[in-house]
Specification:
The chain is α/β, with parallel strands linked by helices. The chain has 20 helices and 15 strands. The structure holds 5'-O-[(L-methionyl)-sulphamoyl]adenosine.
């Protein structure tokens, strides 16, 4: 039986002073694949994304354009929201940090922290990265040669009378927690970075600012506004109503905490792996389950940046959608992206090669050859044949189709659950490869020339059709529209996205009954290679 435990997955909330691009679309797509996979496996999932709208940078950009920060936030938040449909993103909520539901709960959280003494008024002198709006410790500043790791601009010496969060008090609790939860930060290499930095010792962090006003006012000291990072991290809790445990929102959504999966890029790991858990400890809230920090997309070997003008922006992505379709885009993001500790290079040529090899020559080719032959030899109806105990190939010791697909479906489900999305994709595609092998080994198109062979052809094509169906079920979280197209052509569309009986049941061998109408389909077409 599928697990009924609720699941929660979050993207970072994106800054509204930037337009969406491959980076934000990537993280949100990974989360979407996971959310869809968990729903398909019968889990009750809550998938959250949104926009981070306060801070000095937004205030400044708005001023430069002669509009209010709220108008700028409204405009750019809408840009992020507009992506959801075209990218097939199935988020359950979209949170904005300027919404009253968020602001009111942030104030409540901060009041609790003031009361407990975890936030106090103090003076601070330190190295400040103006671009990132972030203080950097002396040791780290030295390592970075007093330059911003992001923009390369010099760090500035800043003094502030501010409210501080007593992060230093959580050093040993965090160390113990990390020791007891070795999978808390993934991938492992990133966890080691955090542990290394933790050994330098923790300093208290400022949680308010006085040099601008675009933020949530500090309760009881409105000349201070709450630091944008503190405000932003709370989004994961405010979306579930955790700031008001008796409120209506919490009644409905508190069940999604704590099994939270925070998926982020590597540059914001410290906030998520150290500051956020310490804030939760101070609030006596349980820890999230995992912080997954992926690496970066780079472009032709170079970091993407505004100054280089080499961002894979929405216009570029639109071009890929027009040529290859959104499902191919999602396939490339899921299988070729920087999900581990290495950055991944986005290249038009590589995209085209993957599209052709995996989607045209493998997935589409099998779906199309099988459906065409069923039409040609069996009038477009699923042939009657017993295939469950048929071996998948002529190789000695080859498993039967039912055993092979059952084991593969279980493997795919495990990989999805563990956020090993490229592995899930590969395992699901292995079923298509087995179908391909069966067609090549047995050549049903040759056998069919002799009517005496029709029972054997029926058996082969019934196995192929069922294999295509099972693979399309398992690939649905990654390519929702193309898989729906194949499943519909194969007379076996899924009944909604929250499969009641789980992934294993939906993928169980024998779902296609004899006589089911199978229409010809070719989900991915060959397209011209990009000009180099
Ligand atoms: N607002 C903060 C996050 C607050 S979360 C409580 C922020 N926003 S951001 O708009 O800069 O988005 C950063 C995120 O965008 C990264 O963590 C990552 O998810 C994604 N990416 C931005 N550029 C990227 C690449 N080049 N490659 C992959 N993802 C990257 O930081």
């Amino acid at each position: 039986m599928p697990s009924r435990a609720p699941a929660y997955i979050t993207t970072p909330i994106y800054y509204v002073n930037d337009r969406p691009h491959i980076g934000s679309a990537y993280t949100t797509t990974l989360c979407d694949v996971w959310a869809r996979a968990m729903r398909l496996d019968g889990r009750d999932v809550f998938f959250l994304t949104g926009t981070d709208e306060h801070g000095g940078k937004v205030e400044k950009s708005a001023k430069d354009r002669g509009i209010t920060p709220q108008a700028l936030a409204d405009e750019n938040s809408a840009e992020f929201r507009k992506l959801l449909g075209p990218f097939c993103l199935s988020n359950d909520d979209f949170i904005r940090t300027t919404e009253p539901r968020h602001e009111s709960q942030v104030k409540l959280f901060v009041e609790r922290l003031l009361k407990s003494g975890d936030i106090y008024l103090g003076e601070f002198i330190g190295w400040y990265d103006e671009g990132q709006e972030e203080y950097i410790t002396e040791t780290r500043a030295k390592e970075l040669e007093y330059k911003s790791p992001i923009s390369g601009r010099p760090l500035v010496r800043a003094t502030e009378k501010n409210y501080y969060f007593r992060l230093s008090a959580f050093q040993s609790r965090l160390e113990e927690f990390f020791k007891a939860n070795p999978g808390f930060v993934r991938p492992e290499g990133r966890f080691n970075e955090v542990l290394g930095r933790l050994r330098d010792g923790l300093q208290d962090v400022p949680v308010t600012r006085t040099n601008f006003t675009w933020g949530i006012p500090m309760p009881g000291a409105s000349e201070h506004v709450i630091y944008v990072w503190i405000d932003a991290l709370f989004n994961y809790a405010t979306a579930l109503g955790l700031g008001e445990p008796q409120g209506a929102l919490a009644q409905e959504r508190a069940k999604y905490w704590p099994p939270a999966y925070h998926v982020i890029g590597k540059e914001i790991l410290w906030f998520h792996a150290v500051i956020w858990p310490a804030m939760l400890m101070a609030l006596d809230l349980p820890m999230p389950k995992c912080v997954y920090a992926h690496s970066f997309w780079i472009r032709n070997g170079q970091k993407m940046s505004k100054s280089l003008g080499n961002f894979v922006d929405l216009e570029t992505i639109d071009g890929f959608f027009a040529k290859y379709g959104v499902d191919a885009w999602r396939w490339y993001m899921t299988t070729q992206g920087p999900i581990g500790t290495q950055d991944a290079d986005f290249s038009d040529k590589h995209f085209h090669e993957i599209y052709t090899a995996h989607l045209v020559n493998t997935f589409a080719n099998c779906a199309s050859r099988t459906s065409s032959m069923i039409e040609k030899y069996f009038g477009g109806a699923m042939p009657a044949a017993e295939t469950a105990s048929m071996p998948i190939s002529a190789a000695a010791g080859a498993p039967t189709w039912s055993a092979f697909t059952e084991a593969t479906a279980a493997k795919v489900a495990r990989h999805y659950e563990a956020f090993e999305l490229a592995e899930a994709a590969d395992a699901a595609l292995s079923i298509v490869r087995a179908v391909d092998l069966l067609i090549n080994e047995t050549a049903p198109f040759k056998l069919a020339k002799d009517p005496a062979n029709l029972p054997r052809v029926a058996e082969i094509l019934a196995a192929c059709a069922e294999g295509v169906r099972v693979a399309a079920v398992l690939l649905t979280p990654i390519m929702p529209s193309k898989c729906a197209e194949v499943l519909t052509a194969y007379g076996s569309a899924l009944d909604g996205d929250r499969a009641r009986n789980g992934l294993a049941a939906a993928a169980r061998w024998g779902g296609l009954t004899a006589g089911t109408k199978i229409a010809k389909c070719a989900p991915f077409m060959r397209v011209d290679a990009p000009v180099a």
